[in-house]
Amino acid sequence: xxxxxxxxxxxxxxxxxxxxxxxxxxxxxxxxxxxxxxxxxxxxxxxxxxxxxxxxxxxxxxxxxxxxxxxxxxxxxxxxxxxxxxxxxxxxxxxxxxxxxxxxxxxxxxxxxxxxxxxxxxxxxxxxxxxxxxxxxxxxxxxxxxxxxxxxxxxxxxxxxxxxxxxxxxxxxxxxxxxxxxxxxxxxxxxxxxxxxxxxxxxxxxxxxxxxxxxxxxxxxxxxxxxxxxxxxxxxxxxxxxxxxxxxxxxxxxxxxxxxxxxxxxxxxxxxxxxxxxxxxxxxxxxxxxxxxxxxxxxxxxxxxxxxxxxxxxxxxxxxxxxxxxxxxxxxxxxxxxxxxxxxxxxxxxxxxxxxxxxxxxxxxxxxxxxxxxxxxxxxxxxxxxxxxxxxxxxxxxxxxxxxxxxxxxxxxxxxxxxxxxxxxxxxxxxxxxxxxxxxxxxxxxxxxxxxxxxxxxxxxxx
Length: 463
Ligand code: GLY
Ligand code: MN
What we know:
Bound molecules: glycine, manganese (II) ion
Helix content: 40-55%
Structural class: alpha+beta
Number of strands: 17
Mean pLDDT: 97
Radius of gyration: 24 Å
Low-confidence stretches: none
Shape: globular
Largest sheet: 5 strands, mixed
Strand order of the largest sheet: 6-5-4-1-7
């Protein structure tokens, strides 16, 4: 945990931003995996963590802005809990650790909220993402699960997003730790990616590094020789000569701050001529995106810069034609790059995705596109000091997508499908690094270098 002053000052800033009302925070509960006592690893809700720091299940909290009161609600543990889970501070002691003076039994939360509503106070809650929270909100506030997104407080969402989007120095230090552990995970994978090695062996080794360094995974690892499947969570293949191995993996620190990196390397130790050409186009697109990063520039510009470079590269290989910037702007590039360039990162690897990408990644008044490609752009807004995000352009040959677009003659003025067909079995590759925006520009996060150039990749594979 950070010091209690951090949480006190975060809550004070939130109260000021909201001005009035009663803010409800639901901490996460233990969640059963296949039977009641076999639970998923406990993960605290990130917004609860941000304002209350406590890493225990079964807590809720209220900030009564109207009466300047903060209360943590929780149940005292029983002797059975102590026997199976060890000793814990009392709810009052936990509250004191984070500077909250008042605590109450969880069973009193419902009557507390009803009393507030009867007094005319507005209860603000965030959109729930866990089924148990949906049930709790139904019980506490009488709003059916299907209607809860509609009744969630946009004002509360915007206030939280505005604070969490701007990382403080102590958060940057914590994210730096997460990125460094993530880099160590990737360095391990580069050394292991050889013919005959199973994807699951690398996934296991990568997770071991996260655990050894005191962290855990910030999201399920992608360790695959089928990198064209963007979120490929199966580890079923054995690496063979000619494959590109793709790792997308990151660590989360004990304070729950994330790192998120991707790497691609040739299993045989050397890229083929074709692979080298695609890898270098992707590196050019990476650099073009990074060159745009500075305060005030919309991240959508970085995305378009990367997309334009990919189109230029594909033109060089005969797969695309026409004006490269136009092909980027109208979305023809998405045949090869169907996802977004990056996303905010912090307490969540896709930071605050539960609160709504529209609020996190887009400026007021700009709606997220529904067009294929652009609809996956999670971050588009002008960059501001303190933003932390990923940059992860990739080039993918997804056979089903190529078949579909070819049959529909999509963007036929920009795509030479006969040439694309020849590359269908290529699979895909990406690199991903994490950046933060400073007063003047953008800074790469982490203190350890993750290989990017082909020479750096070969060196890392031979260590
Ligand atoms: N690292 C997985 C993702 O960004 O979606
Ligand atoms: Mn990512």
